[in-house]
Amino acid sequence: SSARLGATLAPSSSSPGLVSAGMVGVVSRLQLGCCLAGVCLLGLHAGFIAPSGRAAGPSVGGTTHLAAAAAPAPAVWSPEVFEKDVADAWSGAIRFLAGAALGAVLLGTSAGPARADIDDVAIPVDAKGKTTSLTKEQLVRGKRLFLAACSTCHVGGGTRTNQNVALSLEELSGALPARNTVEGLVDYLNAPTSYDGLKDISEVHPSIKSADLFPKMR
Fold first, then answer.
1. Per-residue confidence band for 20, with pLDDT thresholds at 50, 70 and 90
2. What span, in angstroms and rounded, lies between the C-alpha atoms of 156 and 113?
């Protein structure tokens, strides 16, 4: 008889009714839990709302005296009021969850190392047409060096001391000698000259030549 009882209670694929009954029980418990949570939220909502309103007393000698606060009338329960309170509670919960999700997204997309795909960008090395490319690590290191040594005067690719000269490859190619290659920039950082190449500006521009004046170039 015990074996028969165990076989009856044990779930099996041949008795889908037991599985369905179990699922119905789980769904019922979930619905009950949701209802209880809604009632708790409504209780908190009502608990933090203070009754307001004062009745005006009669006027004596031209001065209006405020009467004691009237006791609030007992709330009348109705399905419409209950549904409205439930909707307000769910609306507040949804706004809270949406704010938390937005904060998580913003936290996950905070500023970090450069992520541009630059592997296919050809960078001219010299005037003979030789090119190279940078890795992401080299880009990050170069950006860090530029911000530390050059960003004071070159903000956003411009030039504070000469608004007519920017750092785009097109404008650097018009300098004499041309500065739109790696070799041209290295030569400039060693001994900088004016855009037309006629004047030595190492005393006013950071360079290896004037490292005694610009320690960050040593």
1. very low
2. 18
